Amino acid sequence: MGAGPVTFLDPWLLQVGVGLTALVLVGLRSHAGRRRRLADFIGGRRAVDRLSRSNLYRLRVERTLLLGIGGLALAAAAAEPHWSGSPELPPVKSVILAIDVSASMQAADVAPTRLARAVEVAGELLDALEDHRVGLLLFAGTGYPIAPPSHDHQALRFLMEGVTPTIASAYDPGSLLSVAIEEGVSLLERRAPLAVEADPLAVGADPVAQERAGERLIVLVTDGETGESDEDVSRAVEVAVEAGIGIHTIGVGTEQGAGMIIPASAYQFGGPVLDVTGAPSTSRLREPPLRDVAAAGGGRYANARNGAQLRALTGELQASGSIPEQNPDDERPGWARYDLPFLLGLGALVLILIESLLDMTLPERWSLRMRELAWGKSA
């Protein structure tokens, strides 16, 4: 595949740059007029030859060319050009990892606790999604957006280190799946994909548009214990599906369940979570609603204790994320593989540097030495 024509991601910047370059050239023409008037003022061509080493009547064509071409090169670099025939990049997904931090996640039926296991699973997914944008959301009775989708996975790992047992509260009303889904949709909508042109090749020709055209997904990591009706959850799922957002779910916990102990922390008393009778409350994994949410959202359900299910879900998330190998039939010339904005910017800087050296004079010591050599020869 040969190198195709050059296209620009921001062509309006090219037009602005051309206009600014035209203003610079007009300024140079005006400067040439002032030089001629100065020459006439000091006595004409004969006086100029005696008083100045430069011809004030001559149009500085070399300076005009250097600045004109340099300005156009900078304008082209700012417009972000790229080769249309470049190998296509894979679509990049935007994934929101939504972790349940309600009191029920303090149950110890999964060692050491459900919350710790949820954070561990989220970290494993983050490792598997290295080619994609990933965001982080915590939720319980309300949503806590932590980070929008980003390629900065190191920052997300740092943020997840703060998801500790003391983050839960015994007074939390419980997890609301609808809130988690709504907040996840809101985070993804902040990075809405670019509209695809009518041309079916538009996405392949524009790496940035292609990256933004990937799937958008929400992964709920929770025990499924929710304090809301199925209708509320269904409505939130419908909104996500209408926005083109898929939903996967991961269940953390066991059907036998366990009690919950809230650790003591600053401004919070610790101790076991009690029910209305004052007896220790037991929390259990609720798989049916999680399966229903995944099915309605076009996704997959996985139990955090089932390695095969987790691998299947991870594989689906990773799909289309790897960069394809270089086609051996790609016969593009070597120069077409370089970054165009960098080459144009570098060329413009070189031209401007050369222009700045046109009026450079030799240091006084060198100038004296040149005169001595000239006098020696004349003698």
Description:
This protein has 379 residues and is of the alpha/beta class. The chain has 2 domains: 6-86 and 331-373, no CATH class; 94-318, 3-Layer(aba) Sandwich (Rossmann fold). Helices cover 45% and strands 14% of the residues. The chain has 13 helices and 12 strands. Strands 5-4-3-6-7-12 form a 6-stranded mixed β-sheet, with helices on both faces. A hairpin with a 3-residue loop joins β4 (133-139) and β5 (143-150). 31% of the residues are buried. The model is unreliable at 192-212 and 321-330 (pLDDT under 50).
Largest sheet: 6 strands, mixed
**Beta-strand fraction estimate:** 5-15%
Radius of gyration from the alpha-carbon trace, in angstroms: 33 Å
CATH class identity of the largest domain: Alpha Beta
